[in-house]
Write a structure and sequence with these properties.
The chain is α+β, with helices and mostly antiparallel strands. Helix content is 32%, strand content 30%. The protein has one domain. Strands 1, 2, 3, 4 and 5 form a 5-stranded antiparallel sheet that branches. The radius of gyration is 18 Å and the shape is elongated. The model has no long low-confidence stretch (mean pLDDT 94).
């Protein structure tokens, strides 16, 4: 009986830490999101990227088991580097650092 209580207590602590995820800071989540997005478009000729004026992580919000991060990016040959030619997407950075929800080639 004590083993079951100990096991349950340990699982509750691990789940609580995972839900809180203190190691996923705002800065880490934003960097992870931008790097993941750029890496997925790295070898696409005339693809998308965050190398434009005002682009990159523009907001983030902590949530259970990670953070939602909104990035701004541009695709293709744009006539000028202004916000009207930029796009935004919101993705999720999980407690283990995996990234989901951004456009991919």
């Amino acid at each position: 009986m004590q083993k079951k209580i100990l096991t349950l207590s340990i699982l509750m602590v691990i789940t609580g830490l995972g839900a809180w995820s203190p190691w996923i800071t705002q800065r880490y989540a934003q960097e992870r999101a931008v790097n993941s997005f750029n890496k997925s478009w790295e070898y696409v000729i005339d693809g998308c990227g965050t190398n434009c004026k005002g682009c990159g992580a523009i907001s983030s919000q902590r949530t259970i088991f990670g953070s939602f991060v909104t990035i701004e990016y541009a695709c293709g040959m744009i006539p000028e580097d202004t916000p009207e030619y930029h796009y935004q997407a919101t993705g999720f950075v999980s407690a283990i650092g995996t990234v989901y929800g951004y456009p991919k080639p």
